[in-house]
Amino acid sequence: MLGEVPHCWTLDVLDNRVWCGCIGEKSRGTGRGERSPRKWLPMTTPSIFGNSRVARSATEVPGTSAVGMMGLHAAARAAAPGYVVLYRVGEFYEVLGQDAAIVSRTLGIQLTRRRQKGAADVPMCGIPASSTDVAVARLLAAGHRVAISEQPTEEGGERPLHRLTPGTSVDSAVLAADRSNNLTVALADGIAVAFAWMDLSTGEAGTCMASSDGCGPALARIDPAEVLVARWPDGSDGLAIALRGAAIRFSNLDRPEIDTNAALAVLEDAYGAASRTVLRGFSPPELGALASLLDYIRAIVGGLPEALTPPRRSPVGDTMEIDAPTLRGLEVLTSASGRVGALLSVLDRTVTPPGARLLARQLSAPLTNPGTIRRRLAMIRHLVDAPLLRSDCREGLSGMPDILRACGRLSLGKGFPTDLAAIRDGLKRSQTIATKFGKAVDLPVGLATAWRELDLSGQDGLSELANTLSRALIVVPPPKCKAGFVADGYDPQLDGCRAQGNAAQERIERLQDRYARDTGINSLKIKTNNVLGYHVEIPTSRAKALGSEFTLRQGLASSTRYSTSELDHLAEARETAVEGAARIEERVFRDLSTAVLSTRLALARVARAAAALDLVCGLAQAAAEGLWSEPELTEGVFLEIEGGRHPVAERLLEAQGRTFVDNDCRIGSAERLWLLTGPNMAGKSTFLRQVALIVLMAQVGSFVPAARAKIGVVDKMFSRVGAGDDLAAGRSTFMVEMLETSAILNQATERSLVILDEVGRGTSTHDGLSIAQACMEHLHDVVGCRTLFATHFHELADAAAGMPNAVCMMMEASPGRHDEMFAYKVKPGRSGRSYGLRVAALAGMPETVLTRAAELLAQHSGPTVDSTSDS
Ligand code: ADP
Ligand code: MG
Fold first, then answer.
1. 319 φ/ψ angles, rounded to the nearest 5 degrees
2. How does DSSP assign 60-93, residue by residue?
3. pLDDT at 65
């Protein structure tokens, strides 16, 4: 009945009850000028409009008595701590108290107050039931958890409570198509931490172990949407620091801890009888974390997803350790201005969301095995050298539906026929690509494997599934709807129902013609609505022309509505047919979902192969566009980059019509620390980041922006920017800088790459200088890693000059005209001048201020100093 309530409806109070009326449609005969038709809306919450009169009368509606409702609301609130509670009352969801402020701010809706007898008003806002999907999606996307307290299904029954969290969402309105959505559980075992994660939207899952120091890189690699801590480490802050450093949403897992037996039971429930084989090699804490994760999912989602794909275990050392501050500092996934300006934006030439997700994942987990990296590079080389193959491949992939996410929704019972169609179309496309490219000769191993996997789409199980789906589904099923999606001819029973429904419909139309003819009322119409069902409508003035078979149902100002037994009969026949068809379609949907899920593993293989192919084609495309070259990866401890460029800065400069100056970098075990001095704005930070990015790209298996690069594989990469440069990220405190720097000094190994940019700037000159020098000495003497250290403290050069494995480098500054002040060339030597005044002049500072500053500088530095120096 409520489905038809149009927007213009308003709420009114009469007889101490809440009524709903439609403005503009005056009833006749009541003499009170009431709005009509009247509909008794039990539990409607008119108080949403902040109307105190209405709010008072709402207390009369059964189940909404102020005390009763506040009590029930408080119960829902207590059952879901940390959640924003949406409390259904009639056609609205009320949000009360603190939650109301959150919702009002997030959704931009008005905050009102709910009056209470004998108590203070409560802040409140309301969401119409018709727009909850969008509202919930926006709340989840903003990172809030939402608990929906529904009305009881029967009088006096319990109110069902549904919980939704960002990490368990599979709604495409909430999730970014190109990022994973990993719900993660952390479970400490002593000071080590086991992580288990699952992306419910795709069913992908994994586990890993991390040492206290390794928590940061592990979390950066998992890139969680949400972390639930089942057990905090005892005697180590590693996990807490990593969570805070990466600004990840986390909370305690508020579920009872499960013991080993319970954990095994949960795992067997999830992965079936094969669980022991599937989970061989996983450590007990990893199994515990995985079981806790599944147990939590079961509690929140109301069950485990069907046909789970086995989790993958990432052994320590398989990937380069790189933590969130480093990823942020190097602007790998996002930059200060969002995605624009990040490495990902330059590198991402994928054409499918799963390909984009895979690339983002790879960038936070570069490889460390030179052999594996070389295999990936071989694929890219092949595709760079074969532009036609590459473009064919990308064309075939573009528009490929997201099979993994479609399966994810179906496995949680949240799928629609559109998901079935996505799988049908995805299989068809995979087949086309596989047959077209499978014939190519001399493919490198990786590409041949990808194509073999794609070709599964044409083999037994999957080709049968594709055929069934093709026969069963119409070409484009209606979105978010489980009716009308089955193709004619697929199910004889359904065809029968549809034929009966159509026949009844036709007879109703013929009946209208007959009634119009018999009564002589040309404007007679047979209409239908949710309240009366099928009825005859005529202008009120013609009522006398009707015979006795017409029964009055409803009188409105301008028209009158009737029923007849013949019409009722036809309507019922039609209704029965429609209902029968709906039941059959529901069954077909269930059967097809089951068929899809029974092949989920094979489907996932095809989908992953397509994503992998998209990834390498995209990397090859980026390499071709950027004129990048293939790096050489080795086990040695050195870095040799000739003609290196910063992939992002180069683009930005090009866009402004300027050219980027390339630079070399040569560090190895003998000359492993470069101390780079130079004036502000000379290009120090850019150079440091470009070296780190080239290494990272190479270990992801991408070509690099350099004429030539020979890279000894790096086990951990660290990059820290001194406080002050990082203001945009709101992390300018000196404490953070010191915390992060000490993490590097403690964690870096001989095989690591460390980039320190202006460390020590966040405090007084003397402090800063001393700390910077001590850090440099520790890295040089104790750690012995490859280090690039940029500083504007040129005094540090004196210290470096005395170190056997350190080299003083400087940014060349040409003394020429203002706009040619910097040459952006890195060369041996030390810079003694900071050119601060010249930068100030460039920035347009008033002449008088510049002159005065020069005077002061001369005083501070003594008579020998050049007036353009600020040292
Ligand atoms: P520093 O860290 O020495 O203060 P930055 O690395 O921040 O300097 O560079 C300042 C600006 O100089 C950059 O924004 C960029 O526009 C320009 N720049 C830096 N490196 C180069 C280069 N190699 N070629 C051309 N321009 C560059
Ligand atoms: Mg800088």
1. -125, 160
2. TSTT--HHHHHHHHHHHHHHSTTSEEEEEETTEE
3. 54
pLDDT surpassing 50 at residue 24: no
Q: Does position 563 have pLDDT exceeding 90, yes or no?
A: yes
CA of 822 to the centre of ligand 1 (A): 9
Q: Which residue has the higher pLDDT, 865 or 386?
A: 386
**Phi/psi of residue 44, nearest 5 degrees:** -65, 140
Sequence letter at residue 600: R
Of 299-308, 724-733, 784-793, least confident by mean pLDDT is: 724-733
Pairing between strand 146-149 and 639-644?
A: unpaired
Say whether pLDDT at 43 is over 50.
no
Which of 330, 684, 686, 835 to probe ligand 1 with, by most ligand atoms within 8 A of CB? Answer: 686
Task: Return the C-alpha torsion angle 241, 247, 249, 254, nearest 10.
Answer: 10
More confident residue, 855 or 783: 783
Choice between 527 and 852, residue whose per-residue pLDDT is larger = 527
Q: Order the strands of the 9-14 sheet from edge to edge.
A: 9-14, 17-22, 39-40
Give the containing element (helix H, strand E) for 841. Answer: helix 836-842
Tell if the pTM clears 0.85, that is, is over it: no
Strand 92-96 vs strand 192-199: parallel, antiparallel, or unpaired?
unpaired
CA of 621 to the centre of ligand 2 (A): 31
Q: Ligand 1, residue 679: give the atom nearest the CA.
A: 3
428: closest CA among 383, 451, 396, 452?
396
- Considering every ligand atom shown, identify the ligand nearest to the alpha carbon of residue 812 and give its number: 1
CA distance 408 to 339: 27
Angle at 449 between CA 630 and CA 381, to 5 degrees: 15
**pLDDT, tens digit, 9 for 90 and up, residues 429-468:** 999 999 877 777 789 999 999 999 999 998 888 999 999 9
Phi, psi of 663 (to 5 degrees): -140, 155
Q: How many H helices and E strands in the chain?
A: 28, 30
> What is the number of the ligand 1 atom nearest to the C-alpha of 663?
23
Look-up of token digits 């029930």? 72
Question: For 94-113, what is the mean pLDDT?
Answer: 92
Using the mean position of ligand 1's atoms as its centre, give its distance from the Cα of residue 661 in Å.
9
Q: Which two tokens stand for residue 369?
A: 């095995």
Helix axes 417-438, 460-472, angle to 10 degrees: 130
Rounded to the nearest angstrom, the distance between the alpha carbon of 778 and the centre of ligand 2 is: 22
DSSP result, 484-551: S-BPTTS-HHHHHHHHHHHHHHHHHHHHHHHHHHHH--TT-EEEEETTTEEEEEEEGGGGGG--TTPE
- CA-to-CA distance for 195 and 4, rounded, in angstroms? 49
**What residue ranges line ligand 1, CB within 6 angstroms?**
649, 653, 660-661, 678, 680-686, 824
Candidate of 660, 681, 720 to mutate for ligand 1, largest count of ligand atoms within 8 Å of Cβ: 681
CA angle 198, 202, 205 (to 5 degrees): 25
Question: Which whole number is the average pLDDT over 174-196?
Answer: 92
3-class secondary structure, 135? helix
Burial 686-706 (b: 16+ CB within 10 A, else e): bbbbbbbbbbbbbbbbbbbbb
Tokens 């075939």 map to which residue? 396
With bands split at pLDDT 50, 70 and 90, how would you rate the model's confidence at 600? very high
| Predicted local confidence at residue 471, as pLDDT | 97
Helix boundaries (H) for 546-632: 565-598, 600-626
Find the 374 Cα to ligand 1 centroid distance in Å. Answer: 32
In terms of Cα–Cα distance, which of 729, 744, 726 is closest to 241?
744
pLDDT band, very low/low/confident/very high, at 504 (cuts 50, 70, 90): very high
For residue 658, the ligand 1 atom closest to its alpha carbon is 25
> Mapping DSSP to helix (H, G, I), strand (E, B) and coil, where does residue 705 land?
coil
